[in-house]
């Protein structure tokens, strides 16, 4: 099956890809601001045009009212083959300024005129009642009986004012957009300075491996302050994880070197000179125990390392798993002249089946190794698993130390073990959001693994 073709970036995307984030933010802000200013300027221009036109129309309407009251009806001579209406303006009608008033016949011929006269009396005008604009003049035409009253005024002043307003709005818009671009870049630069600090710190850490370096904390509680605080917390966690990994690697190397050194010594001793077959058999038999201990240590290290991987929780029947693990530990119990007593009730938990088996095995093996008395009790009730053994148990003050890898309690150096059992159980408990709870009683010591409460499942009671 052929791979889908990758989309090629457009020329605009290529250009924008070369720009810094500051310039992109400034351009975006400038575009939005420019559209806002231009739309606002267009609105101001349109509103001014309507207001001035309305004022001019009001003047024409008032003039028309005065002119209508000044019409005198009388007989007139026939002109141009038409029979004109007998009407004229009285002598008191004197329009001010550049107003022009005409009395028209139904055919548009001028019967009478007052005010500023720019056209001849033979001029014919279109008879269209209402307001209109004709040849740079604003015109109001009203019907008066069988005649028409025409009042007009030039729009030169209005057009000149609107042209000046348009120029002012255009120049002002360009100036404001330029100022907005500068302000937008300044704000973007100021806002992105903490991001630059984060980037520089990350580059420094990657280049020098100095995980102790931190990002300068931005003041306040805004987004940048949260970003720098979160990055510093992440670096704190990363530094802690790296240090733990380094300590773990050093300790693991030390723990592995000891059995390997012993094994190498025995091999050198066996190969130092020719020996009888029985001597070789004895030497190899002794090495098997060292290899088995080394294998167990390696498996423990791998299991502990896998606890950092993402978990995949599933429903686990705790009592059934506990019974299986207890059965597999019977040989170890008999070797120590001990017995495992089960007290099991049905219980379903969200965990990992293999991990639960390993955790129960480690707790049982610790109880069988370090506990006193003849009996170890494995109890399961709902979402709680508990292993109880005889004896005082470890020093309570040393409990947190015993949860670290390769740490062992006082007085147990003669007992075989790697110091990974409790550390692995503690790591697994954290993966499942469970708790590892120690309890010291009268002559007993218990370790409980408490899981979060899960939905109960009806199961038959398991008793052994």
Automatic annotation (TrEMBL):
It is found in: Membrane. One of its GO terms (molecular function) is phosphorelay sensor kinase activity. Residues 74-85 have a biased composition (Acidic residues). Residues 69-92 are annotated as: Disordered. GO terms for cellular component: membrane. Residues 251-455 form the Histidine kinase domain. InterPro entries: HAMP_dom, HATPase_C_sf, HATPase_dom, His_kinase_dom, HisK_dim/P_dom, HisK_dim/P_sf, TCS_sensor_his_kinase. Residues 189-243 form the HAMP domain. Its EC number is 2.7.13.3. The chain crosses the membrane at residues 26-48, 168-188. It catalyses: ATP + protein L-histidine = ADP + protein N-phospho-L-histidine. Pfam families: HAMP, HATPase_c, HisKA. Keywords: Kinase, Membrane, Phosphoprotein, Transferase, Transmembrane, Transmembrane helix, Two-component regulatory system. PANTHER family: SENSOR HISTIDINE KINASE TRCS, SENSOR HISTIDINE KINASE YKOH. This is histidine kinase.
């Amino acid at each position: 099956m052929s791979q889908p073709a990758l989309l090629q970036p457009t020329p605009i995307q290529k250009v924008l890809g070369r720009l810094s984030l500051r310039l992109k933010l400034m351009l975006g802000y400038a575009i939005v601001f420019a559209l806002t200013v231009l739309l606002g300027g267009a609105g101001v221009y349109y509103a001014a045009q309507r207001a001035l036109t309305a004022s001019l129309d009001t003047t024409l309407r008032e003039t028309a009212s005065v002119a209508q009251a000044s019409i005198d009806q009388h007989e007139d001579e026939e002109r141009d083959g038409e029979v004109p209406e007998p009407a004229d303006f009285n002598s008191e009608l004197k329009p001010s300024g550049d107003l022009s008033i005409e009395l028209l016949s139904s055919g548009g011929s001028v019967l009478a005129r007052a005010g500023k006269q720019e056209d001849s009396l033979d001029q014919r005008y279109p008879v269209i009642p209402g307001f209109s604009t004709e040849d740079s003049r604003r015109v109001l035409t009203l019907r008066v009986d069988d005649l028409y009253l025409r009042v007009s005024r030039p729009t030169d002043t209005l057009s000149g004012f609107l042209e000046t307003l348009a120029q002012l709005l255009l120049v002002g818009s360009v100036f404001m957009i330029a100022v907005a671009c500068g302000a937008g870049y300044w704000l973007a630069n100021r806002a992105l300075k903490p991001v630059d600090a984060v980037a520089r710190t990350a580059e420094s850490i990657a280049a020098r491996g100095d995980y102790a370096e931190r990002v300068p904390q931005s003041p306040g509680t805004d987004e940048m302050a949260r970003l720098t605080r979160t990055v510093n917390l992440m670096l704190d966690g990363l530094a802690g994880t790296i240090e733990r990994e380094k300590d773990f690697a050093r300790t693991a190397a030390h723990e592995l070197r000891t059995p390997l050194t012993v094994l190498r010594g025995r091999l050198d001793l066996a190969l130092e000179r020719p020996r009888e077959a029985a001597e070789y058999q004895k030497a190899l038999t002794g090495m098997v125990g060292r290899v088995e201990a080394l294998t167990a240590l390696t498996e423990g290290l791998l299991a502990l390392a896998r606890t950092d991987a993402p978990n995949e929780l599933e429903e686990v029947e705790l009592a059934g798993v506990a019974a299986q693990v207890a059965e597999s530990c019977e040989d170890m119990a008999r070797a120590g002249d001990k017995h495992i007593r089960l007290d099991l009730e049905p219980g379903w938990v969200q965990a990992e089946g293999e991990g639960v088996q390993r955790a129960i095995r480690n707790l049982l093996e610790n109880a069988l190794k370090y506990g006193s008395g003849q009996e170890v009790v494995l109890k399961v009730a709902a979402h709680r698993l508990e292993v109880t053994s005889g004896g005082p148990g470890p020093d309570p003050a040393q409990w947190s130390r015993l949860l670290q890898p390769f740490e062992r309690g006082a007085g147990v150096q003669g007992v075989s073990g790697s110091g990974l059992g409790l550390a692995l159980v503690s790591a697994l408990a954290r993966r499942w959001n469970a708790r590892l709870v120690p309890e010291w009683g009268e002559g007993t010591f218990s370790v409980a693994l408490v899981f979060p409460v899960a939905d109960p499942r009806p199961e038959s009671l398991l008793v052994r």
